[in-house]
Design brief:
Oligomer: homodimer
Number of helices of chain A: 5
Distance between the termini of chain A: 52 Å
Strand content of chain A: 5-15%
Keywords (chains A, B): DNA-binding, Transcription, Transcription regulation
Organism (chains A, B): Streptomyces smyrnaeus
Low-confidence stretches of chain A: 1-5
Pfam families (chains A, B): HTH_20
Protein name (chains A, B): Helix-turn-helix transcriptional regulator
Structural class of chain A: alpha+beta
Number of domains of chain A: 1
Radius of gyration of chain A: 14 Å
DNA sequence: CTCGTACTACGGTGGCTATCGTACTAACCG
DNA sequence: CGGTTAGTACGATAGCCACCGTAGTACGAG
């Protein structure tokens, strides 16, 4: 056992495993729409993204955890640990490859 | 009371009343995705569209009624009576005005 | 008027889900 | 080590929702 910091991996669907129904269901919730709207204003690079607590939500932290997980399991966002925080970012490239134009259309629509 | 054939009106949300969450929720179901996929192959003009029974679905007729109603109340489809049948057609123009590109992106995605 | 077709309304059932609070773990800072 | 911060796991609850069958309505054909 190396003494390096343990990297807690989180399960993500591969690009091919992303299902349309799951994505639409994940987006059909006002709290989760808000999450992706906020994430949209952050970069997507390896080191970019927002922590869970940076996204202000009108629900408890445990409920917020639930919503982030739904988005991750649907393949909409990527989550990785960074110290005590968890970094969230949109999976733009994967979503664009799988369902071209969908994410942008939803983001534009959510912006009113 | 005129003796003309009674026109049973059905409630539809106006263009401005169409809500994004409702549309996404309506589309996040495999049966309803199939419905709009089939309707997409029919014309949208006043006289076009498909009857409920023309859309083959793997559910009972009462459940099918439920799905058509969800789509109508979300503003995704328009329904009007024509004799004993009900004609269904997509509300393309309204959806495009409200959420540009969304319907097309979903239809493309659903087509695999 | 009777019959068949097309769809609906209603009631019930099981499963999912958004929400919460509480208790917990993981990492970093002194 | 102890404390703080960030997020999670768990259990509970209430509401919604997809589904069905049965009974009923509306319309057109004969």
């Amino acid at each position: 056992m190396p003494t390096t910091t343990a990297v807690r991996e989180l399960p993500h669907p591969s690009r091919e495993e992303i299902r349309l129904e799951a994505v639409l269901h994940a987006l059909a919730d006002p709290v989760r729409l808000r999450i992706i709207t906020v994430l949209n204003t952050h970069g997507e690079g390896e080191g970019n993204g927002a922590t869970c607590s940076q996204v202000e939500l009108p629900v408890s932290t445990s409920t917020a955890t639930h919503h982030f997980r739904v988005l991750r399991e649907a393949g909409v966002i990527n989550q990785c640990y960074r110290g005590t925080s968890k970094i969230n970012c949109l999976r733009r490239a994967d979503l664009e490859a799988r369902f071209p134009g969908l994410l942008d259309a939803v983001l534009r629509a959510a912006a009113n």
